[in-house]
Amino acid sequence: MGIEGIGARVARKEDKRFITGKGRFTEDMVVPGMKQAVFVRSPHAHANIKGIDVSAAKAMPGVIDVLAGDELAEDGIGSLICGWMIHSRDGSPMNMGEWRPLAQSKVRYVGDAVAIVIADTRAQARDAAEAVEVEYKVLPVVTDPAETLQDGAPQIHDNAPGNLIFNWGIGEEEATDSALAGAAHVTEMEIVNNRLVPNAMEPRAALGHYDAAEDHYTCWTTSQNPHVARLVMSAFYNVAPENKLRVIAPDVGGGFGSKIYIYPEEIVCLWASKKTGVPVKWVADRTEAFLTDAHGRDHVTKVKMGFDADNRIVGLKVDTIANLGAYMSLFSSATPTYLYATLLSGQYNIPNIYGNVRAVYTNTAPVDAYRGAGRPEATYVLERTMETAARELGISPAELRRANLIREFPHQTPVIMNYDTGDFEASLNAAMKAADYDGFPARKAEAEGRGKKRGIGMSCYIEACGIAPSQAVGSLGAGVGLWESAEVRVNAVGTIEVLTGSHSHGQGHETTFAQLVSDRLGIPIDNVSIVHGDTDKVQMGMGTYGSRSGAVGMSAIVKALDKVEKKAKMIAAHLLEADEADIVIENGQVKVAGTDKALGWHEVALNAYTAHNLPGGMEPGLKEGAFYDPANFTFPAGCYICEVEVDPQTGKTEIIQFVAADDFGNIINPMIVEGQVHGGVAQGIGQALLEGTVYDEGGQLLTASYMDYCMPRAGDLPSFQVSHQTTECTTNPLGIKGCGEAGAIGSPPAVINAITDAIGNNNLTMPATSQKVWAAVNAA
Amino acid sequence: MYETSYHRAESVEEAAKKMGTAEGGKYVAGGQTLIPTMKQRLASPDALIDLRHIPDMKGISINGKDVRIGAATTHAEVASSADLDAVCPGIASLAGHIGDPHVRHMGTIGGSIANNDPAADYPAAMLALGAAIHTNKREIAAGDFFAGMFETALEEDEIITAVSFTAPEKCAYSKFPNPASRYAMAGVFVARTGDDVRVAVTGAGMDGVFRWEEAESALGSNFAASALEGLAVNEGEMLSDIHGSAEYRANLVKVMAMRAIAEAG
Amino acid sequence: MSKVEMTVNGRSVSGDVEDRTLLVHFLREHLGLTGTHVGCDTSQCGACVVHVDGKAVKSCTMLAAQAARAEVTTIEGLAAGGELHPVQAAFKEHHGLQCGFCTPGMIMAAVDMINRHSGKLDEKTVRAELEGNICRCTGYHNIVKAVLAATEQMGGAAKVAAE
């Protein structure tokens, strides 16, 4: 590696604008004549709309217009869709209810958009929004995923009888049942995975601008995947054809999944801009974000894990109800199915697995992928069960895991996935060493003397990233291919622009992608600019989620670089009168190997553009594009250990140490990768300890601000101990597995395993708030 | 936020006069509770009279054990006053745990007391210290001042100008914060001078701040955490919400009281 | 409407704004200083932290009118003469930011914290002092590291480095 190449801890190129206040976020965008929008939202979780009277609101100061759902429908704007078809066990397609961008006849959750008010200022728009009169007939409400399936529950969508969206299965049920029947020991648990609100610090925002002269739309939006937004808004929502719609996702302040989806607001702002003739900007306030951003998790699961007399797992059966909320968000059906149950084998040899998932509607905010997406739920089920089994069997949790680890690769699980590589024991050993696992009993005894209950917990996770092989996901129901594109544009002076379909909203692509180019060509990263986030600049892309930008996005850049290098070598061979096969590129030079015959990289680039002396028949220029479609998922894996102290008098849990040992394959920038782990672990600890989403019986969100939804703060967390054990991914050119989600996937069970170990009571749900832990201590 | 009008007062008299002429006016000091409440459109004063710049309402004066804190003194100023910390460490420590550093730079003791949020910290200190609340009209004993959640003895146009108290021999404040909002789920201020012990509790009671008299008499004869063993606040009078049941809050009150006693020494 | 005058980043500014205008909106919309962000409605996230008369405050919890005649420093005013403030430099060096949205408030809070503690800070204190700033990306690990590194860097000069 060079000092700025692959493997170097390079400080980020993008930082300067953020640390000096020059970042450009959607809310910062200003277009001449721009007006401000506020949405009128349902205060009821379930109600029929009997009428909407906007006349008083329209007469308010500064108001440009007030528009409701009927007008939107008259203009042919389509309904929101879920882009992944799931079929139930009986072969029937999923029951997708209609989601209008502005509700017309019925609202289904608190926050459902009903109308948009556009005014000179946001305050005026909000004043007027209060004057919009909506007559509701309130209907019975259901928010709980189990209750919504019961007889007599309120019917939320007409075409989803009993609120069941699908009843899906994976694996062999009979074989699993019989394995469990013959097991020497069966551990059974009921496990709840708590609903989370993603809470990217930048609230969602959209600025829609219709240019009547050009008959062209521009949308600035807080998106992780602007091209997908354009595709979906064109193909399904009938906003505008793709050639007349430009989507720009400028600096985006975090996403964590919640900014993958296309929401009603960007559609409505674009439409309203044409309707009113003014650019329309909407910025969510935090409570709006709580109410309407796609939430995460919300599973209720029954699990049975059977062991033989040697403590080997013989079978695993999982029955899950997944709450998808009031509407099916863009990828909502994939999260609790192919991103969840396909990971139920974990790091273990499990010969028989059956997973059943029922997805349901409730009168709550839509639920979709949130950092980890399905994989945290699978890991939580497995790792809570493993820990519990070890306690029941009376053996060390580490040794039970060790006895069941997969050690040979490739490994085909009973639930689709084929793990290409890994060394799970290496991470287990590294984590145990870093945590001084063997020294725990002495620390526990010392804590006891101080009146504290100390516990240690472990979690071994595996996830599937590098989403995803297009043909494979197509066969499983995906509506799109999940490749990535890149273009490498060499300028005449040798500097380079890389256009990528990946989108950076904190991941540091402007640095790591430049490091890749620097590594290949030996030019400084300052000579490489990364262009992303604008459908007019980058031809096509699938965006950033599922830890895919390294494994898929960078692989596309590798392919484009291969083509650029090939042409550069041909030019150099021609100029240096050498054989193309003898040309090498290193340290910014294109040279004949083993000689001092060389051209500067910039000289080759200049020759490509002057075109005065190119090989016969060669086109001028040096610019190449590529699409990369992954051959398989990638499988990051690792072992996390958490050590806690519980204050039995208050139930307060302090994280004493948190160790993460991960195998992410090859790493471009260790500093950035460590940062991804830190952030993911903090979110996982947040889920385990602090973050509870509470709807009351009437469907009101009680945790709709930071006064009630507990975000992890610096004082809630320790510094983390992070290490890497590397086995290279075998299916992509860089050997990268991906690192964006691991922290959030592996950490929650480690925390809960540690607390339950400390207090001697395994009956504890997330978030393990002080109150709950105190009650569990007293019940132990 | 609904429309409002802003008026900055340079003196207490000017502030009272402006309030007299304003329709639907409200005093604002640091505004750290009022402004967020107005942003959420839960309060809509037509006029705001700003007390933050009135010189007479600022500063801490200490004469022996007698302490006077101007109502417009910020939490940060109270927390960082070495002189105050020397005579009454409990109140300096309390101020240092209100909100966060930025809130403490703006929020004032007068504003906190006038608002009487049931989870605010200062009311517990005022009750336990037996403080006097000085206004532009009169002096009110803390015991008569706090009148239940968000209710005080203040009249509409009355301005708190200062609080005063005699520092106790020993005092401490112990708080269990709500994990999300960081307001007190239970905060207990313990003050002792001779046999006179006062224990005031915030964040937990249904009617706002209150004195735990049973604990006070137990501690009068034995100022030790162990004196509270066997005692309990009445669960029926505790708040209950998604963050803490009445049972849990009752437990916290006792635990925080014991910790405050231990800290007071 | 009122005319509001103040000094922002050393420059005298004024504007006619509704009295209900928050300081953060005055900075962002009237002065175009969009480095100061709004991340919540309840005065908790700290993305809006600026210095008013040398002290860190939440500009979303203060009317522009309340800040009239004050000296305000925003993230845009921190780097003197194009030279990064040591806290800014430390955030970059130690990867104390990812998406960058909370960063301006974090940096303004960190500068204030270092000033108040006269350059003497340890990890526990830094974590406690960050109570009013929420970050969703970094898990705070590298923010804490950056603040400690900047504290060391600033040494005895800590007191005067802010404004």
Automatic annotation (TrEMBL), chain A:
GO molecular function, one term: iron ion binding
Residue ranges the record marks as coiled coil: none
Pfam (any one): MoCoBD_1
UniProt domain Aldehyde oxidase/xanthine dehydrogenase a/b hammerhead: residue ranges: 20-140
InterPro entries with a match to the protein in the record: Ald_Oxase/Xan_DH_a/b, Ald_Oxase/Xan_DH_a/b_sf, Ald_Oxase/xanthine_DH-like, AldOxase/xan_DH_MoCoBD1, AldOxase/xan_DH_MoCoBD2, AldOxase/xan_DH_Mopterin-bd_sf
Keywords carried by this UniProt record: Molybdenum, Oxidoreductase
Gene3D superfamilies, alphabetized: Aldehyde oxidase/xanthine dehydrogenase, a/b hammerhead, Aldehyde oxidase/xanthine dehydrogenase, molybdopterin binding domain
PANTHER family xrefs: ALDEHYDE OXIDASE 1-RELATED, XANTHINE DEHYDROGENASE
Full protein name: Xanthine dehydrogenase family protein molybdopterin-binding subunit
Species in which this protein is naturally found: Oricola cellulosilytica
Source taxonomy: Bacteria, Pseudomonadati, Pseudomonadota, Alphaproteobacteria, Hyphomicrobiales
UniProtKB/TrEMBL annotation, chain B:
Segments forming domain FAD-binding PCMH-type: 1-170
Keywords: FAD, Flavoprotein, Oxidoreductase
Record protein name field: Xanthine dehydrogenase family protein subunit M
Pfam families, sorted: CO_deh_flav_C, FAD_binding_5
GO terms for MF: FAD binding; oxidoreductase activity
SMART domains membership: CO_deh_flav_C (SM01092)
From TrEMBL, chain C:
Superkingdom field: Bacteria
Coiled coil: none
CDD domains: fer2
Gene Ontology molecular function terms on file: 2 iron, 2 sulfur cluster binding; metal ion binding; oxidoreductase activity
Residue intervals of the 2Fe-2S ferredoxin-type domain: 2-78
This protein's UniProt keywords: 2Fe-2S, Iron, Iron-sulfur, Metal-binding, Oxidoreductase
Xref: InterPro entries: 2Fe-2S-bd, 2Fe-2S-bd_dom_sf, 2Fe-2S_ferredoxin-like_sf, 2Fe-2S_ferredoxin-type, Beta-grasp_dom_sf, Diverse_Oxidoreductases
Protein name: (2Fe-2S)-binding protein
Organism: Oricola cellulosilytica
